[in-house]
Amino acid sequence: MAAMLFVVTLALYFAATVCFLAYLLWPSEVLSNVSLGMTATGFASHTIALGAGMIGVTDISTPGFHEALSFFSWVLILVFLAVEFRHHLHVLGSFIVPLALLSLVSAAALPETAPTLTPVFRTLWVHVTLSMLGTVGFAIAFVAGLMYLIQDGLLKSKRFNVLYSKLPALDFLDHLNQQSIVTGFPLLTLGIITGALSAEFSRGSYLNWNPEQTWALVTWVFYFVVLMGRLTVGWRAKRAAYLTIIGFAGVILTLIGVVIKSHGPVS
């Protein structure tokens, strides 16, 4: 049942993505309502699929990348629906739902029987959950930064088109960017700490400086600098938007590195 629901979820997220992208170009609220309905239905099927998948897991201490990426996609949609419920920000779905779809497609590309996380990451879902939640925070910051740059460009060029009318105010996007980093950074920090503790138990060393661990630490330092810059120096607006986009690229490279490493021999 989980596999069938996973396919249904993919189809619904794909249809919602198409409608949300079309919503960016046409002044039709019907498209946004249809997209939102498909996203909510897809989220419901995704939730059931995750639950059914967990029931069939015999060892919850070793989640694989299929589960991790699917969980990342699920949380992204959850955050979007929560923001939509509070702010009625339909256009956010045009950016988050495609990102969630890409994550779910990546999860589908990995067989459910793919190798589980290597020993350094082998722990009770805590490490994976915290790391993915932190990554979701950075993903929302990335989306807010991207929307900020688009809206800023439209304002400066005085192109007051359909897209301009649907994007939120710059102050709102800047606030969303900062709050997402403030939320995501502590979660990623806890994820790194639990991963280091797992490495100590499994290998007798908190850190062995392999490429994915090193890049994860570089990403952590980068976001630490961005966070301190925002909270103390007052980095705002365009600079913060560019930095969070660059930082999220580092997060994606880290995930790709971990996936590649998991399919190679354990060192």
What do these coordinates show?
- With 267 residues, the protein is mainly α.
- It has 2 domains: 116 residues; 149 residues, no CATH class.
- The protein has 9 helices and no strands.
- Helix 5 runs antiparallel to helix 7.
- The protein is flat and about 60 Å long.
- The two termini are 36 Å apart.
Number of helices: 9
Question: If you compute it from the alpha carbons, what radius of gyration comes out, rounded to the nearest whole angstrom?
Answer: 19 Å
Counting structural domains, the number is 2
Q: Report the biggest beta sheet as strand number plus sense, adding barrel if it closes.
A: none
Query: What is the helix/strand order?
Result: HHHHHHHHH
Q: Spans with pLDDT under 50 lasting ≥5 residues?
A: 114-122
Sum up the overall morphology in one term.
Answer: flat
Relative helix content: over 70%
User: β content, as a range?
Assistant: under 5%
The class by helix and strand makeup works out as mainly alpha
- What's the count of strands? 0
* Average residue-wise pLDDT: 83
What distance lies between the first and last C-alpha atoms, to the nearest angstrom? Answer: 36 Å
